[in-house]
């Protein structure tokens, strides 16, 4: 899915003007580069005038010494032009890389600050292409395209005026033959701008496909779908190729006019010049100088098409980058933040509602009025059928998403009134899908402890305690121990190993509230039992909300909350809910069946559950008898 630019209505100048904050620190160097380039152009324009004087004087009179002086004069001008070109590069190349660095840093910071809802909508390949390809293109345009475009336009203007120096008719021919190029340039902008945007978006889609296939290589190989992925990639690559060919055709058309019109101008000027010489209006040295000047102007004229397309590419890249900068961040720090001096960990959901941004207007809220209180130090298990909203509920305490109604409080303070940095010091999470980074085991586990020096004794103590709780001692046996660099997303480890390290990371953060979304799903039975035993000690002083997808996880909890159709319909001890809630019994039976399918074990139906099933069947039979009786009465 490509993201359409929200800035397409801006003019090219207005779109590029948005780069001003990034360019302002190097503006002096850019001006220096532009002046150097202009000086080089002016020197080049002086050479035809010097040549005219050489032809008129030393060559006409045959003075060898003066000819040599004139030749050295032309050489000096050429060396001066080369020096100015070198100076232009010296002025702009390094500062342009500073702009690139600052844009990349700011864009990365922006991506980190934008809410999860933004990342749900955007493909990672699109973000990657903007971060690397588009910003690199903007840097090249600032260092090269912008200055040369401005200087070459000025050079053409100055040169055109100088052409009138020899004869007005020759200058007029030069200007009139240039009109078709400007008309074609206007039409070119309309067409090429659309193609450039389409091409860059398609390149982002292609990058997404590559990333997805690399990350999902195990799945593709396991299902033998490599050829299917290749076919899909080939179609996308072919679409991009066709767009690039359309761009090339558009550039080819503008180059046709840029090549044709100067040739026509040269031909007409030659015929007119010969006629003017015959008429005595000009002499041969003047015609020679005119053509020398026209030759100097040929490169600036021909470069306009390339530089114009370069500018449009840069404009499109700027639009794509600013699509991200202009995104509204809905999860931000409050204007007047509140701080919790001594957090206790009382977590409360008060009439909390939530619906995803793409939910239909007729759909009910996914979380439809959640009322739930976790007391300090309490462990609460959250159970419910698939799709009931359990995982979504766990994202609210850390403000990965914000409630769309009601509120979530920590120690009586609305979490939206806390600075995000403080909130996320108090609330830590471990997800079922454990994500690790390309860093050492130490850095991954201590990710949430910015307050620690990773090489300190205290960091070592926290690290080893967290690994012990998560039963992640295997990390010590890795090739370089705790300094082993984990591969991208931790795919070099097993699912259970990744999950244990992610759990260790959450434990090491030492939060007051710990939110665990089925953190033990990939563990074997024996390891799970050891982790649960260690977690009991950790959770003794920590408020914990645990999504339970396995019956054994429920055993960790002091109380259990039942989530049904977006609402908490029952809260209590496991044994009490088995007796009082038919839906809870159904959920637990489902969890036991899933666990039996996973482990190959026979489901263990406790006496309480068996009695509950008998009671449920009796209630169903009584209801059926009552319905039959009512039908007879109505008959």
Description of the structure:
The chain is α/β, with parallel strands linked by helices and 635 residues long. It has 2 domains: 26-325, ABC transporter transmembrane region fold (Up-down Bundle), CATH 1.20.1560.10; 347-436 and 465-470 and 494-572, Rossmann fold. Helix content is 63%, strand content 9%. It is built from 21 helices and 10 strands. The chain has helices spanning 12-17, 20-23, 27-61, 64-113, 116-121, 124-163, 168-176, 179-215, 217-222, 226-278, 284-325, 390-394, 420-426, 441-445, 457-469, 495-508, 525-538, 551-554, 574-580, 582-599, 607-634, and strands spanning 347-354, 367-374, 379-383, 405-410, 413-414, 427-430, 513-517, 543-547, 559-564, 567-572. The strands form 2 sheets. Strands 6-7-8-3-9-10 form a 6-stranded mixed beta sheet. A hairpin with a 2-residue loop joins β4 (405-410) and β5. It is elongated, with a radius of gyration of 36 Å. Residues 1-6 and 604-610 have low confidence and may be disordered. Residues 613-635 are annotated as: Disordered.
